Amino acid sequence: MFNSSSRLAVVINLDYLSLPYDVCRLLWVVVEKAMVEAGFVLDGRVFVAHNDPAAAERARLVLKTLEPTFESLGLSQFEAVRDFYCFDLGTRVDLHMLDAAEVVELIEIAA
């Protein structure tokens, strides 16, 4: 799925629509700490692993090990986590950025 030179991005979104803010905040702190300890780098709200084809499985393992934390709050991972997916970071298109100019016009200014 991913080659050894890809940068894998893992997205974890909690169910902010159904769960109380305080519960989501607590869970996010726990998830963030566990993912960083597992070797991921947080880039905004995306966890990134560089050159690691096993990163997707490691992310699954992180959430599996957090299941007791979810249960202690009366939730399962499937109730608490709304989105859990990964993608090759090289395929991300930042829509905030303008398209590259097709032509660059240079104007010489006489001194």
From TrEMBL:
Top-level taxon of origin? Bacteria
| Name under which the protein is recorded | Uncharacterized protein
- Please report the organism this UniProt entry assigns to the protein: Chitinimonas arctica
